[in-house]
Amino acid sequence: MIRILSNSSPQTKAFLKFIRNDLEQHRVKLTFSRTKMVRFSHGMYTAGYFLEPSARKWGKIRVGTGNRKPINILMNIAHEYAHFLQWKRREKEWSKGHGDLIEGSKYIALEKRTEKTAIELLKEWGIPANYNAVRMRSNAYIAYLRESETA
Question: What is the pTM of this model?
Answer without folding.
Answer: 0.91
